Amino acid sequence: MKKYKPSFNKPSKKDNQDVRAKKHLGQHFLTDENIASKIADTLSFEGYDKVLEIGPGMGVLTKYLLEKDTEVHVIEIDTESVEYLESHYLHLRGRIHEKDFLKHDLGQIFRDEQFAIIGNFPYNISTQIVFKVLEMRDQIPEFSGMFQKEVAKRICEKEGNKTYGILSVLTQAFYEAEYLFTVPPSVFNPPPKVDSGVLRLKRKENFSLDCNEKLFFRVVKTAFNQRRKTLRNSLKTLNLPDNLREDAIFGLRPEQLSFQQFIELTQKIEPYAISAK
């Protein structure tokens, strides 16, 4: 495969000031080249030859992705950033998509091909990004990037902890989740008020669940919506028979169950939840 080389003019101080970080878009531009390079290196580029960067801003991460043996696409909602990328990163022409990632049909870019996702994600939409990745898990074998540290930790957390929740279970059911490293506020412009964390998700070899997947999502979300209650009480809305709710697993709280136990719970519930299929 052709190795893409970055073709851009070295930005001057004035050029860097042309793109203003916009609070309503949750923008915090990464300024540390070493960290940008480390994030680019988190992807293995195995089993796919395309990658989509979300929110590239002025391309501090993009330039390192362009050095990889892969076809790089970027999706950016900020017009100023798009104009900057178009003038500084010539190899991206035709692959800069001025769209809202959460609303755009990525099939228009990748059709049915496999691709990875990477980025320095805006904090205000980071969990929504993960949920969209889960919806498209058939096409996304790998995902990595930077979140607010608290969110990154929660995604990778294991059962038995207070931060373990819906996002933890749903993500870990389909992906191997690994927290990689912490990034301080000082390497951003403007600096956020909290630390950031970089994580990597690698899709499992067998990512089909041994249960009704639609019901699995419903059970997990319903359980954690009342996380202080036992499953016997939090899952009452599923109208399960009393004899089933006497099973020992229903005496546990949701944060005590691994994703595998949630699969087993869903299997137990499935015969009684026809309407959820």
Distance, first to last CA: 43 Å
Low-confidence stretches: 1-16
The level 1 CATH classification of the largest domain is: Alpha Beta
Strand content: 15-25%
Task: Please report the number of helical segments.
Answer: 12
Helix/sheet category? alpha/beta
* Strand order within the widest beta sheet: 4-3-2-5-6-9-7
Number of strands: 9
Q: Find the CATH topology of the largest domain.
A: Rossmann fold
The gross shape turns out to be: elongated
By CATH, the superfamily of the largest domain comes out as Vaccinia Virus protein VP39
How many structurally independent domains? 2
Give the overall pLDDT as a whole number. Answer: 90
CATH architecture tag of the largest domain:
3-Layer(aba) Sandwich
Which sheet architecture does the biggest sheet show?
Answer: 7 strands, mixed
**What pattern of helices and strands is seen along the backbone?**
HEHEHEHEHEHEHHEEEHHHH
Rg computed from alpha carbons, rounded to a whole number of angstroms: 21 Å
Q: Helicity range of the residues?
A: 25-40%
Domain Ribosomal RNA adenine methylase transferase N-terminal: 35-205
Family: Belongs to the class I-like SAM-binding methyltransferase superfamily. rRNA adenine N(6)-methyltransferase family. RsmA subfamily.
Binding site for S-adenosyl-L-methionine: 28, 30, 55, 76, 100, 120
GO molecular function: 16S rRNA (adenine(1518)-N(6)/adenine(1519)-N(6))-dimethyltransferase activity; RNA binding
